[in-house]
Task: structure prediction
Amino acid sequence: MKAKRYGLVFVLILTLLFPRCSDKRDQPKERKMAIVISTLNNPWFVFLGEQAAAKAQSLGYETKLFDSQNNAALESDHFDNIIVEGFSAILFNPTDAEGSVANVQKAKTAGIPVFCMDREINSITAATSQILSDSYSGAVSIGKYFVRQLNKKGAYVELLGLVGDNNTWARSKGFHSVVDHYGGLKMVAQQSADFDRNKAMEVMESILQAHPDVDGVFCGNDAMAMGAYQALVSLGKADQVKVFGFDGADDVIAAISDGKVYATGMQFPLVMAQTAARFADEYIKGKRDFPQKVPVAVELVTRQNVNDYVAYGKK
Result:
């Protein structure tokens, strides 16, 4: 009997000194969110990522920001690392509408909800929710203003964004749904500049050599609008060609105030970022019923109302 008692005491001491290691799968997930951004080489996306992180942190989560550099393979690596590291949710700005679906799906399979911000993926089941700018309607408004400013006639250029981004085509289709009804307006060139300022400058310079008499240029984002404007300045045509953008970036708001750019479509990245973080928090706390797509209105900014706006939103 004494030996049995001593054995029980020994087991008790071992238990106190060396607590049993529990299976990690039994432990609750850490409170942390991953923010995956298509590229941090664009101030608009930097703002989107920073605001998503700030909102998640205010809700009590640790955050980590991942830059995909517009590279689908790097984005895939980010998702693999996020799954291994056990993040609670992903706030996601995709690199490619089609190519990013597989990444979102593997996160879903691993039990990690994904909330898309601004850019869409071509799936209605992979992401938990997609919070997206209403790019089509915003471009319709720009198209109407474009027609008025060019007096329904003239030659124009369109600079497209990334061909794999649905926003590129939503903006282009919205713009053309208006402009194509006016026979006096002729598109002399349509070319992708990948939403990049430097590339837009190069593309615009090349187009102007082939088509020197251009009256307007519609750009799928503000970075390209500023690149196009720089090209016009370098060729001495800044006063002859009317530039229109899309985003609501700081430099274009200033350029509209100065009369250098005619208009832009103001997106609201703060709304998209905060909504995504809030939805993720609600999911982690147990909610499961989310709208698949949440449209965020885009507003037309011109010289007449530019004083009502600041970069990426209203005053």
